[in-house]
Amino acid sequence: MSTTEIFALILSLMGAIASLWFLYEKFFPLRRLSWRSAQNAALRISDQMKQTGYDPTLIVGIGRGGAIMGALISGCLGHRPLLVIDRKYMWMDGRRLDDMALHLQLPPGLIARVLLVAGEAHSGNTMRLYHDRFMQLGAASVMRAAYFVQKGCTERIEYIGIRSDRDLRMPWMFTHNYVRDSRSEQEAMAVEYSRSSTLPTGAHVKTWFIVRHGESTDNEGGDRYSGITECPLTENGLGQADGVGRSLQSEGIQKIICSPMKRAVATARKIQSLTGGQLVIDQRLREIDYGEWEGLTRKEVFNKWPELYSKYKHDPVTNIPPAGESPMRVLERVQDFWQEVQHSPSMKGISKVIVVSHNAVARILLTHLTDTPLSQYRERRIDNASISKVMIDDLGKASVVYENCTDHLK
């Protein structure tokens, strides 16, 4: 047999093996990850951390998978301190509400640089819970790592072992007694929607990002009623707008709808310079009018209207500032805006939109989309340059994936 024939035979065998592997994967797809892949993922994550220079003072393993992966990563980094905290769940209206099983007070030095580790991240909601909790505890920085991140995860995971659109079983799920934590209907929907750009008929999804303008000179101190008063962005506010634009740069934004107020327009233009998309001004997105409270601090308002201010804090819907705008009126224009843009011919074929508005307007819009009583709108927190993500099906039903995300500002 000649050398050419031997070479051709080898190529034929390789082709046959590749074909068999393709058929095996097609009809018997891999559903379980191996322990070796977990070890390799830990090495990969530790290498990513070394490249970015992140050296954690504490590794927090979330649940059972986080305990295993946290221990592996700790070993790769030279045995960093490891803490494991499990989760507990409550269910309300089909939505899973996460909480930490233990609430601890930790020394400031120990939580200077925290690495959160999960075995798997589907929606990312649990990661967000832990991230926010450790920031509240005073952590200087909190990063996230996960062995397996499913395509469609809505939270930022800085260090990733593997990513896939399949729903895989972890190596430690090796008995039938293992109970896997269930995802809520909304979380599963968000993952499913994000798996592919080609969706089944009847589930054409639009993605809207609701953004509050960057920091302005009036709300720089966080203690002044600034509704219809015009004020420019601060340098920090411009930087925040830049952060929003960079975080949404790869989303394929087609349109940006913006409040007519200068601070919102400046934010929108900065975002547009990074994301592209047509910029449209809509008067209905202007901020609420605080009437005679405009430009005053809370202390000044309390000193002049102590009784009204006390009532306003408990019921902002029926107790409004003198000559001010009722939240009911804001709700009406927000509802009018939402209904029109969902059915307008000018929005045909538009699936990725950014709405740039204000604190009260964004809170009232999200209150409307989540069917929450208007009386509770001020209980929501919408920070400067925060992003809230909303997904909409072809029937117009909206699901809030997350709100008030500020990770891009860190």
Describe the model.
The protein is α/β, with parallel strands linked by helices. The chain has 2 domains: 35-184, 3-Layer(aba) Sandwich (Rossmann fold), CATH 3.40.50; 206-409, Rossmann fold. It has 11 helices and 13 strands. The strands form 3 sheets. A 6-stranded mixed beta sheet has the order 10-9-11-8-12-13, sandwiched between helices. A 5-stranded parallel beta sheet has the order 2-1-5-6-7. A two-stranded antiparallel ribbon has the order 3-4. It starts with a helix and ends in a 5-residue tail after the last strand. The model is unreliable at 91-96 and 182-202 (pLDDT under 50).
Count of β-strands: 13
What's the number of helices?
11
User: What is the structural class?
Assistant: alpha/beta
Number of domains: 2
The portion of residues forming beta strands comes to: 15-25%
Mean pLDDT: 84
CATH architecture of the largest domain, by name, is: 3-Layer(aba) Sandwich
| CA-based shape | globular
What is the fourth-level CATH superfamily of the largest domain?
Answer: Phosphoglycerate mutase-like
> What topology, given as strand order, has the largest sheet?
10-9-11-8-12-13
- Uncertain parts: 91-96, 182-202
CA radius of gyration is 25 Å
Biggest β-sheet description: 6 strands, mixed
Ends: how far apart? 66 Å
**CATH fold label of the largest domain:** Rossmann fold
Helical fraction:
25-40%
- Which class of the largest domain in CATH terms? Alpha Beta
Element-by-element helix/strand order: HHEHEEEEHEEHEHEHEHHHEHEE
